[in-house]
């Protein structure tokens, strides 16, 4: 579906020194500096894969997405998306992909009503009327669009805009979705709605998805594969589970045992009959068995450390 080799993007940005003299001098002789946003990255994405693309601010995620979606011409490298070179922007390519950005979920005239915008999208993407009716009914149902259809785009809240943005993008049934921070700025319930919708969509349609998000819960709930980019380079490409096991060799055992007194192991949390023990992965079975045989346990759960903590460590220290 997607094949990327040696993809590189270097922005050339004008350098301006402060002060009037320097400003005047820069009119005559402009100076530039290079910003290496993406440096020779390569990866493949197969049909039906849902891949989380994460990295700290300024790592090169949006730049990569824009190149894959055909909005930016790279400085160097090869990209094949569905058999097309994205930046040639051929119509059959554009009809099979969608780029949805949380920072700007709905483009175009904000004066249109939601229904008019959907109808305009139908014309733009040449969606047959029968398909349009079926897709619209499905999307209206799943994204709870009914109360929004006659509202103007400019009057929608951010969460409503995102729901409409998804409907606009999915109306023509693209096979490949680029989702750039789809839950950006949304409240807890709007975030949950979008996550649920995306998970169901991926499962029902087998769509291929590349998703960026700073919310690890988005990535955790939707993606099995994770690509980590930092300073324009791919630092990790593999399963979420493997990354977390590699970087955090511990698990947490949460024990609820009212009336007991647990005083062994590495206790990281303790409150009213509940203890959380940090245990090396290879010792989990042994410690669990020991707890169950020596303490009157009411409840016990083995948990992975929070992904946020694992990722924070990667951003600070890299993947070793
Ligand atoms: N149009 C542009 N002109 C010059 N530099 C740019 C431009 N767009 C992005 N950059 C720079 O390229 C680098 C990568 O930016 P990019 O937006 O791809 O990062 P990102 O990983 O999406 O970050 P964030 O998580 O903050 O959205 C940054 O240093 C950014 O300042």
TrEMBL record:
It comes from the Bacteria. It is a peripheral membrane protein. Residues 22-256 form the ABC transporter domain. GO terms for molecular function: ATP binding; ATP hydrolysis activity. GO terms for biological process: response to antibiotic. PANTHER family: ABC TRANSPORTER ATP-BINDING PROTEIN, ABC TRANSPORTER RELATED. This is ABC transporter. It comes from Virgisporangium aurantiacum.
């Amino acid at each position: 579906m997607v094949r990327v080799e040696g993809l590189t993007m270097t922005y050339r940005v004008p350098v301006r020194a402060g002060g009037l003299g320097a400003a005047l001098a820069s009119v005559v002789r402009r100076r530039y500096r290079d910003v290496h946003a993406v440096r020779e990255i390569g990866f493949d994405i197969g049909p039906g894969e849902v891949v989380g693309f994460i990295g700290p601010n300024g790592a090169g995620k949006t730049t990569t997405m824009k190149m894959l979606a055909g909005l930016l011409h790279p400085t160097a490298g090869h990209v094949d998306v569905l058999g097309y070179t994205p930046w040639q922007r051929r119509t059959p390519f554009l009809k099979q992909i969608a780029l949805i950005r949380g920072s700007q979920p709905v483009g175009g005239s904000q004066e249109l009503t939601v229904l008019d915008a959907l109808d305009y999208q139908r014309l733009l993407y040449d969606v047959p009327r029968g398909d349009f009716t079926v897709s619209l009914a499905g999307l209206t149902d799943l994204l709870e669009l009914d109360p929004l259809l006659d509202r103007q785009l400019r009057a929608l809240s951010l969460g409503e805009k995102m729901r409409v943005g998804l409907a606009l993008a999915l109306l023509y049934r693209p096979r490949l979705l680029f989702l750039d921070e789809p839950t950006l700025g949304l409240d807890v319930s709007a975030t949950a709605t979008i996550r649920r919708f995306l998970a169901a969509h991926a499962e029902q349609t087998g769509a291929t998805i590349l998703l960026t998000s700073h919310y690890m819960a988005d990535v955790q709930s939707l993606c099995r594969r994770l690509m980590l980019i930092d300073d324009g380079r791919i630092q990790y490409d593999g399963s979420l589970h493997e990354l977390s096991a590699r970087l955090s060799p511990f698990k947490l055992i949460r024990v609820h045992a009212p009336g007991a007194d647990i005083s062994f192991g590495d206790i990281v949390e303790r409150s009213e009959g509940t203890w959380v023990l940090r245990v090396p992965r290879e010792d989990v079975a042994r410690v669990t068995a020991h707890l169950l045989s020596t303490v009157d346990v009411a409840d016990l759960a083995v948990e992975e450390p929070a992904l946020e903590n694992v990722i924070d460590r990667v951003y600070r220290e890299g993947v070793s």
